[in-house]
Amino acid sequence: MKQITSDVYLMKMAQTDSRAPQVNVYFLKNEKLLIDAGPDNYPCYLELQQNLKSLGINLKQVSVVITHHHPDHVGLLKYFPEETAVYADSGVRYYGTTAYLNAIEEQTQQLQILGIPPHAIDQIKAQLQKRFLPFLENVNFKDLNRLPVSSIRIHRLRGHSPADIVFQKDNFFFGGDLILKGIYFNVLLDIDPVNQKLCLLNQEYEQNIKKILTTFKIQTWCPGHGDSMNLSSLVKVNHKYQKLRQLIHQRITQSFSFSDYDSAVREIYSYFPRLNDYFYLSDILTVIK
């Protein structure tokens, strides 16, 4: 555990997959507030308890806020006391329901109609199914708008997921995975809990990143993975993302002439037969959509 300020502490939690990056979990001591819960990894839960104990705090005294629904940020809730209050977007619970599993089946069938190859659809399906967390139905979720902590401002955005929450304390911003250094394929295919359809979030991601960089008075950005960044670093990271996205877009438009989305997908996949990783796919689809 690393102390960032007199109030803010950082805990880096390892995922069970050693290839996956460590997850940043932040604890605000004065507010007794945990920002994100970390991955489903029981040793991390024991470590969390020990870290809180060293600060003279019992886990039962703590509330939790969630930046987004992905398993590496909510997985540890599986082990929390039942009475733990968890403040999150109202859609988070959806990812623990059979309705979510049904939506995955329905939406991947639509990708077949578009002509996306079976191996690519299998990757999408596998990634979405990893986000099915049945224990979420038993979590003590509370209305995020009623978070009883006056020192925290809540910013509701979209882009990395259907519902990204940025938490602000003074000029510190806890932004989940919206801006991550070194990760430029960051707009992920997901199921929207409202309409239960695949959402392509590139345009909203662009708008919200612009909002973050131009209207938030950022001193320190505390991301869900990696090191904290100042505003200048955030601008550089976004510039690299934009440059890469433009290169992809130029390659697509220079190589093909197509009049509709369906034919574009078919042509791109005949041209990029090996570029079928889920993360690349997410970005390509959002670029051409």
UniProtKB/TrEMBL annotation:
Top-level lineage group: Bacteria
A Pfam family annotated for this UniProt entry: Lactamase_B
Family matches, as InterPro entries: Metallo-B-lactamas (IPR001279), NDM-1-like (IPR050855), RibonucZ/Hydroxyglut_hydro (IPR036866)
Domain Metallo-beta-lactamase: 22-225
SUPFAM superfamilies: Metallo-hydrolase/oxidoreductase
Protein name, as recorded: Metallo-beta-lactamase domain-containing protein
